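During the reporting period the student researcher (J.K.) took over the structure-prediction task from the postdoctoral fellow and processed the backlog of single-chain submissions. One of the processed entries is reproduced below for the supervisory committee.
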Amino acid sequence: MKVLLVDDDSDLLDVTSYALRRDGFNVIVATDGAQALRRWQADEPDVVVLDVGLPRMNGLEVCHKIRQDSATPVILLTARADEDHIVQGFRLGADDYVTKPFSPRQLSMRIQAVSRRGAAMGEREPTRELRVGDLVLDVESHEVQHGEYSTQLTSIEFRLLYLLANNVGRVVASSRLVDYAWGCDGGDVSLLKTHISHIRTKLGLSVGGPSSISVVPSVGYRLTQAGVDASAKEKARTDEPIPLYVADPNEDAVAVGIS
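J.K. obtained the following structure tokens:
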């Protein structure tokens, strides 16, 4: 099932899209209202999950425009107790709403529920993959295919590559990579550099090649894939919820929800 997830909070978008892919959804992301409409028209998702407070066109306007042309199920993300937006959203044709903060599991179940009711729902095979150029990331197994070759990454390596792939062409700050990969377990820039080096070696990503992970000194890292364009992404707001992490007895830490 294809889900369009729209939110201008980069941290929430990263962790929620990761969790939904683990549940078998094919996730497309957008960070503002105008981009959301373009992705909806181009990708024809089965369900749209839409934050109300979006730049360039708020979620209610996007919902209204979608409903004018389609019966695609729409789930609104709203601030807690924001009753006016909830009521207005239902009047504009929204199918359900989820209040922040929320758990990805709750959102996953809401998506499945509205998709069963949605007349536009099609029978599609679920996918747990993120495809970027010639890279294919399997969210369930942490296996990555690069061209004709595949390799197994550790949990830390996979989360780093996943965040870079989900932001292909953009520079991702080192601090954001550390927070996403290690959470409360105390990673640092030195460890980050080591793990990036391991990823390059395992996948054969040469610096300066058509597929590469390059460093931007004193800023962060960028994944480049030949033929893949990346549009500008809104900077994450510092006052929004951030991912929570719990210990994985097999190795590192895994994202489990939103605080």
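The committee noted the following: The longest strand covers residues 74-79.
J.K. will present the remaining backlog at the next meeting.
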